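Note to self: keep these together.
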Amino acid sequence: MFLNQFLRFEPILKEKIWGGEKLVQLLHKKSEKKNIGESWEISDVEEDTSIVINGNLKGRSLKSLMNEFNSQLIGKENYKNFGEKFPLLIKFIDAKEKLSIQLHPNDELAKKRHNSFGKTEMWYVMQADKNANLIVGFQKDVTQKEYLNHLKNKTLTDILNIDKVNKGDVYFIPAGRVHTIGAGVMLAEIQQTSDITYRVYDWDRPNEDGTYRELHIEEALDAIDYKALNEYKTKYKLKENHSSKVVSCPYFTTNILPIKGEVSVDHSHIDSFVIYMSVEGSAEFIYNNESENLQIGETILVPACIKNFTIKSTTNSKLLEVYIN
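Structure:
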């Protein structure tokens, strides 16, 4: 069978202690719950595999598509590297309250300890309340001893880098970099397929039943990158109807594509699936006389075997374009 359609998936909604209502109110996710923190748009995490909601493959799981279509779906090189495991996890996140201070192990540690991929990720801020912030990295290089002292004294934020954020801000977070999303921030997250998080501080915040979430102080020690950068925010320039590269690393490449009118897309130079996330406005994807409309907060996967298609938008729209280079 030949894979000849765009793929849309049912969002997997996750309740979180810090979650809110923006994913429902602003991105039109369907839920009655008041604390939806994450919408997993495309996932091949065990127990949380995405299900197709469009076309001839409706009802099929991403896992079964990987088994059947392998390189047609993800590209020859990706299939060689990842086998039948889809390599990226794509999310929208709403932090009504701040998340725990955390980090993720790299591939080597994650493989050894958890038989998992590591977790390098990036954020694109879609909306931020006034004075909302996030934490990424340290203000200056620290030793493990200094870090542990601050952790013990509950003064960790004194040595962390806190940035006020606005819509359109981009942050790249390699494995090992300490980070957290602050209250009032909604963002798109692109990451390796991994659900391994080392939580080092959770603001002494109890669950509803009075218990506390598990911390991973010891595991985190040799996973942390104690070095600081001068600047953590990613700078980029945009050009209408052109893909502008924003983040490029071995795990994923992310471009931003601002669209007004019609764009003919040619991916013949890319040996990879391509994911589009709508972060502003709406767009229509057209292939083989079939079309899919993508509204803000929706995601579409273009299989590696589809190289040429058209995207149209009557509004000023912005898409994140994600693939593995």
